[in-house]
Queue: 2 jobs
Job 1
Amino acid sequence: MERTRKRIILVDDMQANLELGRGILKTFYEVFPAPSAEKLFEILGRVRADLILLDIEMPGMSGMDAIKRLKADPETAGIPVIFLTSVSDSDSEMAGFDLGAADYITKPFSGPLLLKRIENQLLIEGQRKSLEAAHAELQGHAASLEGRVREKTEEVTRLQGAILATVSSLVEFRDRLTGGHIARTQRYMQVIVDGMVEAGVYAAEIRDWDMEYLLPAAQLHDVGKIAIADAVLNKPGRLTPEEFEAMKGHVNAGVDAIEQIMAMTDGSEFLHHALYIAGTHHEMWDGTGYPIGLKGQNIPLEGRIMAIADVFDALISERPYKKALSADEAFEIIRRGAGTHFDPALVEVFLTVRDRIEGIVRE
């Protein structure tokens, strides 16, 4: 059962003061008289005090020495201490406050004043404990909320990954001529971005990119192919000019699909990356690409990176209308395309990470 009466230890080497103080306090509090500081610590060994009334001038251990010991012990440091003194000395009072005293009371005691000072200190201490408990509770709630948010974020990430994998499979199921293209280009893009970081290329622009969003977004670069007719998408031969124009429509179809998702959400970083990659990976550095004809650094960086990954994979892949080129031939075509088809700075990075790209090719 929770105790209702607060416990006060009254420390004074004068028996008369102990009796007087106990007589004033006993109606309202559970009082433990102590004739010395040494006795105080004996009582604290078995009693959890709510407040200590501590005489300053005592033989043996003084009140100043006692409060130093109290405040040095985590078990007793939080107990409010009110000093009892028969002499008003501002220097001594300041020294006591510096050591952690909560208040001073001058002897001989005034009963109403003593009770009011104790009441005030116990109220302050109660409020402090309530605040600490509330703070601890808030921290607990915050930790719990953080855990739930982390779990929900992980769940959303897993769901996002599953949806992307499904969409990618749908695209490649329809575009049967480019099996594995989406997965490979994503890996090439990862290597290129790593090379950019290592070389400090476009460092300011990519510094704030979250790769957990950028790289999965690369899987949507050809999502618009879902809207292209099978007769064009899977034609076992070269496309006519009219069919090629229809094929080029996959870019705008992909942009439309991603924009529809953005309109129903908060437009996350992931979707912005996906939009730039899907919408601009067929633009060319010299402005002759499609669908808009953007030029140079007006092409979003994500699209310029994907342009290299996309073309390289197409070059080394066999199609019904062409044989696969060797890695050497493909690298040479990319190199020659610097400044016309591709961003020259990115081509230089691509060539420096050639061994890693070839490792993916061999796999």
Job 2
Amino acid sequence: MSQRMTIDQILDKKRRDQKITMLTAYDYPLARLLDEAGVDIVLVGDSLANVVLGLETTREVGINEMIHHAKAVNRGVKKAMLVGDMPFSAYQIHPQEAVKNARRFVEEAGCQAVKLEWFDQCLDVTRDILRAGIPVMGHVGLTPQTVDQLDGFKVQGKDARSARELIQHARDLEKAGCFSLVLECIPDRIAQTITQELSIPTIGIGAGVHCDGQVLVTYDLLGLSERFHPKFVKEYVDLKPVILQAIQQYKKEVLQSEFPDGAHSFTMKKEEWEKLKQRGHTPQGGV
């Protein structure tokens, strides 16, 4: 196995003012493509709930599903850093189980770190996981797991009071020991302020260009997501019509007996076929 991107290398990218790229993966084929493309960090995101499992919210995906998919992603990642997204039930319902569940991402699934969204006990849980020797990526701003407490999927930190809270959360997570921080759906000036103040890298999603890196849900990038597309999503290619056309062409050829043709079928030697015919084992109408 090739050497994977390390936390020190991620930190060094910030020191050298080199942008960091992060994308999500949920299976082996997609993970291989991201790794081949040279993405720095592959996140096994809890967006798995929406874009792969068809669930309504990320709160509905559990630790077992996340570990299952993280194992598959791990098999496809050779060079990128692999981070596991802790699902809501794995650390927010019963914070005392957070360390046990974080260990599963590392020991069972081969992740190098876990990601936690901000919540009331976030700092305590973060410290507990770090004491267990597991690196933590923080996440502030819009936190989908607790969106019901944020008055919906809206930009966070738009007024001075809430902006100060976000900045303080970021400071506290750095002080607690996080090696990086996702900033989601916050004004670009606030993201720039946090990025300039912290010594750890910031990874933006809907947080402007001044973050140290960027992350998107890969299915959004590829045009394969059916859910609402926030303003920050850029669709680099629309694969849905391409895939749909291929499937429709396959169906047409099967219905018209055009597939499989000779190029996609197997044959047997004529003398073996004759032996079979002599025993009466031939298709109806066979020659």
